[in-house]
TrEMBL record:
Residues 1-41, 495-528 are annotated as: Disordered. Residues 516-528 have a biased composition (Low complexity). PROSITE patterns: CATALASE_1 (PS00437), CATALASE_2 (PS00438), CATALASE_3 (PS51402). This is Catalase. Belongs to the catalase family. Heme binds at Y356. GO terms for biological process: hydrogen peroxide catabolic process; response to hydrogen peroxide. It catalyses: 2 H2O2 = O2 + 2 H2O. Residues 1-14, 495-508 have a biased composition (Basic and acidic residues). It comes from Halalkalibacterium halodurans (strain ATCC BAA-125 / DSM 18197 / FERM 7344 / JCM 9153 / C-125) (Bacillus halodurans). Decomposes hydrogen peroxide into water and oxygen; serves to protect cells from the toxic effects of hydrogen peroxide. The gene is katX. Keywords: Heme, Hydrogen peroxide, Iron, Metal-binding, Oxidoreductase, Peroxidase. The lineage of its organism: Bacteria, Bacillati, Bacillota, Bacilli, Bacillales. Residues 21-414 form the Catalase core domain.
């Protein structure tokens, strides 16, 4: 006889398909009133429906991401070209996501701003996150990037200090340009990033019209186990648009969710945003001929020396159905690589790789990888068991349920066969705490300053002057010195701007108002 309790559609005579239930499956007969002694109360404590409803509500929020809390996401696919220039891409990587021409891999992308909370304005001067999860046949690959191609620091030990300086003051809870530049003035490697960030490149017009970059140096590994160093870049087919401070303020006055809405509405309208993925390659060595280290994330690899080669395209064609389940609970990390892709020795990358899954076990929970948005779209069979919120057992189809260990002769899980040769770099050196040799903190920052167009340079100077004006004089002097070392004109213009502002009424604010022109500005890719 069929066990009627197993029939998920079974219901009592009083229920229809529309009937509200609680999570125990009890039909809810009164969702308007708590149970009370008489109509005026007091309320009784055994009110299970009410307690379940309110205590679930009390737990609706999980901790925000400590950085990149404000974001928007979308689903789509990545299509591989199968080649690297004139060569088959398999010469450089055996990653299946790339090797077959025309192969489509599902993706989920989350765009974000960095510093402020989950509902902060999307017009703020801030790097933008560009995180892509590829659900490949070999399991997931996350490419966790930003819109800008470089970063503030090169050592992960500095990351909490960097973020604290940019986050609101712990006393006033207000972001303060003086705290930002107190830290930055003593962090010369940040000059390149600051030059981008305080120019219009620090406020992309929306998510569809911005670039993306992996920033850190990774490796590709081929069938023979040979590696090359690589950098990844996303180029929007929609073109690139950035905003002056004044343009951003005009948008913010009316709509502080404009980037989320822009993405959502474009996809709803069938105007699917698309990016092409470009990869730059360097041979896997220290490159003593360069004036920078290829593992330094504060540096660009200039296009004329290291060409951008397209390897595929990405289309976003589906909005999330539930923001919390898909966007808020999404968990990306730099450790999530597949066969044929590898880490480089970039220290910042290695520090990041610990941080992401660590914070996600705290933010989402120990079983965060079982959630549909994070789980790979292929079989998962592990010996990991239990933990808070375990949703199902990751058991293999033929696995003996008594055997949750390996090795075993009793039908336990077995190791996979290795595809291709291992990449086995030889590493030696003295254990030490030291910076890389070729720091060259100012060279590329000066070059970026000179490559900006006139309106971008004007806006950069204005934004820097407005933010530095209320800062302590020692900080101003230090910053003028740094900018002068990037380019004498750069330092001179900031100095002159600050002298003009002396005595003027300057509010403490990190961004300042700018005199730009009212239209949005299309940007060229700066030749990088
Ligand atoms: C998010 C750490 C550098 C891009 C995060 C989160 C942490 C973190 C803890 C929150 C993750 C979560 O709650 O799910 C670090 C550390 C860094 C670093 C320790 C340096 C040592 C970078 C760099 C980039 C970057 C260089 C750009 C290439 C992102 C993005 C997100 C993020 C895009 C948001 C991911 C999402 O949408 O869920 N980072 N980060 N981070 N980080 Fe980093």
């Amino acid at each position: 006889m069929k066990d009627q309790n197993q029939d998920p559609n079974k219901r009592s005579d009083n229920e229809t398909d529309e009937t509200l239930t609680n999570r125990q499956g009890h039909p809810v007969t009164n969702n308007q009133h708590v149970r009370t002694v008489g109509d005026r109360g007091p309320t009784t404590l055994e009110n299970y429906d009410f307690l379940e409803k309110i205590s679930h509500f009390d737990r609706e929020r999980i901790p925000e991401r400590v950085v990149h809390a404000r974001g928007a996401g979308a689903h789509g696919y990545f299509e591989s070209y199968g080649t690297y220039g004139d060569e088959p891409i398999s010469k450089y990587t055996r990653a299946k996501v790339f090797t077959e021409k025309g192969k489509q891999t599902p993706v989920f992308v989350r765009f974000s701003s960095v510093i402020h909370g989950g509902h902060s304005p999307e017009t703020l001067r801030d790097p933008r996150g560009f995180a892509v999860k590829f659900y490949t046949e070999d399991g997931n690959w996350d490419l966790v990037g930003n819109n800008l191609k470089i970063f503030f620091i090169r050592d992960p030990l500095k990351f909490p200090d960097l973020v604290h300086a940019f986050k609101p003051d712990p006393v006033t809870n207000v972001q303060d340009g003086e705290r930002i530049f107190d830290f930055i003035s003593q962090t010369p490697e940040a000059m390149h990033m600051i030059t981008f960030l305080f120019s219009p490149w620090g406020i992309p017009a929306n998510y569809r019209m911005m670039q993306g970059s992996g920033v850190n140096t990774y490796k590709w590994v081929n069938e023979e186990g040979n590696a090359v160093l690589v950098k990844y870049h996303w180029e929007p087919k929609q073109g690139i648009k950035n905003l002056t401070q004044k343009e951003a303020e005009a948008i913010q006055a009316k709509n502080f969710n404009h980037a989320t809405l822009d993405l959502y509405e474009a996809i709803e309208d069938g105007d699917y945003p698309e990016w092409e993925l470009y990869v730059q390659i360097m041979s896997d060595d220290a490159h003593p001929e360069l004036d920078f280290d290829p593992l330094d994330p504060t540096k660009l690899w200039y296009k004329d020396q290291f060409p951008w080669v397209p390897v595929g395209r990405m289309v976003l064609n589906k909005n999330p159905e539930n923001y919390f389940a898909e966007v808020e609970q999404a968990a990306f990390g730099t450790g999530v690589l597949v066969d044929g892709l590898d880490f480089s020795d970039d220290k910042l990358l290695q520090g990041r790789t610990f941080s992401y899954s660590d914070t996600q076990r705290y933010r989402v929970g120990a079983n965060y990888l079982q959630l549909p948005i994070n789980a790979p779209k292929k079989r998962v069979a592990t010996n990991q068991r239990d933990g808070q919120m375990e949703y199902h057992v990751d058991i293999g189809p033929k696995q003996n349920p008594h055997v949750n260990y390996e090795p075993s002769l009793l039908n336990g899980l077995k190791e996979a066969k290795q595809d291709g040769q291992d990449h086995t770099p030889y590493v030696e050196g003295e254990l030490q705490r030291a910076s890389i040799d070729r720091q060259n903190d100012y060279g590329q920052a000066g070059e970026t300053y000179r490559r900006l167009s006139d309106w971008e340079r004007d806006d950069l100077i204005l934004n820097l002057v407005n933010t530095l004006a209320p800062c302590h004089e020692d900080i101003q002097k230090q910053m003028i010195d740094h900018f002068s070392q990037c380019d004498p004109e750069y330092g001179r213009r900031v100095k002159e701007g600050l002298e003009k502002q002396k005595g003027a009424d300057t509010h403490r604010q990190p961004q300042g108002g700018a005199d730009g022109d009212a239209a949005m500005h299309a940007a060229e890719a700066l030749g990088h």
